[in-house]
């Protein structure tokens, strides 16, 4: 007797429940998607536009209103001049309409051909103003007895403008000029190399130091809790305070603690500018190597400041491991190094891989540490520092966005490679 064939696919009730669940999750999904994607898409949009920082300021219409003649007798004629101009030299303004009220003590004789007079009220359709355009609007008036007796200030009523300003971000001008200038510049590849050097060694150093610290504090001894708290202090301390302390410590001047100590010990004869020396050439006979001094010091600061995060996660993973396998290995004669290499490390590969991904992304995007220590000088200029310099120091917002797109592309490439080859946790 043949077995009954199970139904294929979802039933009507299951489909309705699935659609209802998706409908409940849709608002949350849209909010998260907008928060994540909107800044990213905006950055891509700006990267392909020739935008300076000043272009973000919306253009407006500026006016200087002035009575050009002294009207001291009844019937004396003169001109009211409206000097109108576009505040921007690049952006256009469309559909400009000016309205103003001329004092009742002045009789309007004639107006500009683009203006319509309604009693003492003027409405002028000025059309479109390209960037930097300026012109004069003339209204001919005559004085009445009331004006001669008590001259009115024509600026008591200010002209009002209605217009449609051009938005540089929403314009249809797109260009690859930002990227072409970026890749053609002589300092792009050195900056990229410095970014990778800083990120790779800073990440690996923080993980290795965190691993050693976790291995040390995983053992039981008196004062272990206090030492664990002290190990977290570099990470929780304010970055400005610790960066200033490192600058004082490494200063090449008389106040530099490290230089003074090394000189007193006879290690060096003259102070070393640790944060201002780009590189020193090391001769190994068969080859020479330009050792990046300032960049390496910044990496040491990075390792010192962020190893507590790795230490915290690795220690938590170590404490969740079963001790039975270690006892069995010790009975079999395994040394502590063998236990670490063959037992602990395989079980830590999952958390180490996740920490490497996170620290790589965070370090590659790190800006404040480098900026506070060196300001990007002496070979420590990375891509994130370049984003700041292009967007704010040079005021080239489009170029800064283009560098940010390159940063995103590098991190995306690394993340794809990581997820392709990352090990799984052997929990």
Mind explaining what this structure looks like?
With 427 residues, the chain is of the alpha+beta class. The chain folds into two domains: 61-165, Immunoglobulin-like (Sandwich); 178-421, MetI-like fold (Orthogonal Bundle). Helix content is 51%, strand content 16%. The chain contains 14 helices and ten strands. It has helices at residues 12-47, 145-149, 177-184, 188-217, 224-231, 233-236, 239-250, 257-264, 293-319, 324-331, 336-364, 368-373, 383-393, 397-421, and strands spanning 61-67, 77-86, 93-101, 106-110, 115-118, 121-129, 134-143, 160-165, 279-283, 288-292. Strands 1-2-7-4 form a four-stranded antiparallel β-sheet. A four-stranded antiparallel β-sheet has the order 5-6-3-8, with no helix packed on it. It has a two-stranded antiparallel ribbon with strand order 9-10. A hairpin with a 4-residue loop joins strand 9 (279-283) and strand 10. The longest helix is centred in the N-terminal third of the chain and has 36 residues, at 12-47. The protein is elongated. The mean pLDDT is 87.
Structural class: alpha+beta
Question: What shape does the CA trace take?
Answer: elongated
Q: Helix fraction?
A: 40-55%
Give me the oligomer status. single chain
Q: Which stretches of 5+ consecutive residues score pLDDT under 50? A: none
Beta strand %: 15-25%
Distance linking N and C termini: 46 Å
- Number of helices, where a helix is a run of at least 4 consecutive DSSP H or I residues: 14
- Could you spell the SSE succession in H and E letters? HEEEEEEEHEHHHHHHEEHHHHHH
- Mean pLDDT equals 87
Give the class-level CATH name of the largest domain: Mainly Alpha
Q: What is the count of distinct domains?
A: 2
Structural Rg:
35 Å
Going across the major beta sheet, what is the strand order?
Answer: 1-2-7-4
In CATH terms, what is the fold-level topology of the largest domain? MetI-like fold
Main sheet characteristics: 4 strands, antiparallel
CATH architecture tag of the largest domain: Orthogonal Bundle
How would you name the CATH homologous superfamily of the largest domain?
A: MetI-like
Extended strand count: 10
